[in-house]
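[job 4471] stage=fold_predict status=RUNNING
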Amino acid sequence: MTIAGTPSSALADTVLERLTTVYPAAANPFRAAEMTAYMKGIAPYLGIRTPLRRELSRTVLDGIPRPDQTDCTAIALRCWELPEREYHYFAVDYLRRHAKSCGPDFLPVARRLVTTTSWWDTVDHLAAHVVGPLVAADGELRAVMDEWIVDQDLWVARTALLHQLRYKEATDADRLFDYCLRQSGHTDFFIRKAIGWCLREYGKTDPGAVRAFVAASDSRLSPLSVREALKNL
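[job 4471] inference complete, writing structure tokens
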């Protein structure tokens, strides 16, 4: 099955042919069962640990030219068609490496990835290292984040919370604090944790602002969010 909207790409054909040869050859069924259980059965695994997987990925990509946005889209969506989680990790690593090859039109693709086989292990990297750079490169996409923060899909909302995670001094603090308040009443662990995490990360840049925000908003934030926000302050 091919995900609707997956474009043709000769580069993706080559990468996927190599990838689906190299990765299965390194599969470890015993480790795969352990990894699947640890990740709550969100997806099956081949059983390839991260250091080996990244070494294999370098083999897969040896001699492969720099992609354009069409190539990135095709590789990501075709990896997501495959059930084993290591293929999704490959796509995330690839997009992190080539985020600058993608423009604002890639954001709907990122959303597709965020909302398909969703769990923190892929969503958080997509938020900070793919969606974040896209928004930083095109300020008009901030309006899309304003929509995502109130989305009914908790992983989309979590992505909006975390997209500025690596912005440091470039963080739009007013937007960050507003997003935290918009989701402060959410009951899900992953949203509450993300609120604390993005505040804690921004606290490395402006600890005073984070302390002041938490002090003023303590009654609206969950204990988990407050604890995470102030952990290093």
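[job 4471] summary: The radius of gyration is 19 Å.
[job 4471] exit 0
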